[in-house]
Write a structure and sequence with these properties.
- The protein folds into two domains: 178 residues, no CATH class; 89 residues.
- Helix content is 50%, strand content 12%.
- The strands form two sheets. Strands 3-4-5-6 form a four-stranded antiparallel sheet, covered by helices on one side. A two-stranded antiparallel ribbon has the order 1-2.
């Protein structure tokens, strides 16, 4: 490793015109990766802390019999975790950018690094100051970051304030000719992966909308196809009960064969007296979004002459005669 990587005050002379400044896309991709790394680390710690806090809360509650003994502590833990995130972020960016790598993991993956205005490695104090200056870019609703896409030297607002610049990893080294002015393979791979991730996310959303909508459509279509033949069976059951004083069954003489009252989209239909004083028509249909058959039960109260429906199948737009 060459000396300029180890000594913050030494740098190999390089013509300023030959320095490749890191473009906005490379910087944005690097920031995205860094935030992803920080997010994973933070939520891993957050999960453990919340788990331990919850267990302590249960322990204290069990011993004292009071559910609010540890509430102030829980609030303090939540506030402490938010403070911890900023401490983690500050330490991550400052230590990495002032290290011999002069870059965070995201920046290293994209082949860029942070240097001062003269191309030298940042001291730790300088890196900490740059991290605090980044708050200006956040407070300006990210416009400060966007300046890197339009400023001549491709510096963001916090770079201007802190006196830093983000350049190709080979700038200000013994091999400036290795700098790349074109998007590297990592940049292209990152954006391809990002597009694929967004595509999968969008497809997942569309599937989450389309699948229930399709199932609802199937249920409505099945309901519409069911009412007319069911109405005919209902009238036949009513007529049989009035003429014979009893409820018909699937095999009752003079009522018809099972084939004569078959219905579209129905596995089977069972007719009989399911409870005293009620003639019933039990319709069993194929499952929708599962493996269990769905039942639609229609029962005729022979004393009140009213039809009652038990809609376990969740059919849509029940007939007016259903009670």
């Amino acid at each position: 490793m060459s000396e300029q990587w180890m000594n913050p005050t030494s740098v190999t002379a390089t013509n300023a015109d030959s320095v490749v400044q890191a473009g906005f896309l490379r910087r944005w991709a690097a920031l995205f990766l860094d935030q992803l790394i920080l997010g994973v680390a933070f939520y891993a710690v957050f999960f453990v802390v919340i788990l331990v806090t919850g267990l302590l809360n249960e322990l204290v509650t069990a011993q004292s019999g009071k559910a609010d003994d540890i509430s102030p502590a829980i609030v303090a833990v939540y506030l402490g975790m938010f403070t911890l995130y900023y401490l983690m972020a500050g330490a991550y960016f400052s230590l990495m950018e002032s290290s011999s790598h002069q870059a965070t993991v995201g920046k290293m993956a994209l082949g860029i690094k942070v240097v001062d205005a003269q191309g030298r490695r940042l001291t730790l104090a300088h890196a900490v100051g740059r991290w605090f200056a980044a708050a200006l870019s956040y407070l300006t609703l990210y416009i400060g970051f966007l300046l890197a896409a339009f400023s001549p030297d491709k510096r963001a607002l916090h770079d201007m304030v802190a006196g830093t610049q983000v350049v190709d990893q080979w700038a200000y080294t013994e091999h400036p000719e290795r700098q790349s002015r074109k998007p590297g393979g990592c940049v292209i791979a990152f954006f391809v992966a990002l597009v694929l991730m967004v595509g999968v996310f969008v497809l997942a959303i569309l599937a989450a909308i389309a699948v229930p909508a399709y199932q609802d459509y199937r249920t409505r279509a099945q309901s519409a196809a069911l009412w007319q033949p069911l109405d005919e069976v209902r009238e036949a059951v009513n007529t049989y009960q009035q003429n014979n004083g009893a409820c018909p069954t699937n095999t009752s003489e003079g009522f018809g064969t099972p084939e004569s009252y078959a219905m579209p989209g129905v596995n089977r239909i069972v007719i009989g007296e399911f409870e005293t004083g009620y003639c019933g028509i039990s319709v069993w249909m194929p499952p929708v979004g599962g493996t269990t058959e769905r039942q639609f039960l229609v029962e005729f109260d022979t004393s009140e002459h009213i039809w009652y429906c038990t809609n376990k199948a969740k059919l849509k737009k029940l007939p007016d005669w259903c009670h």
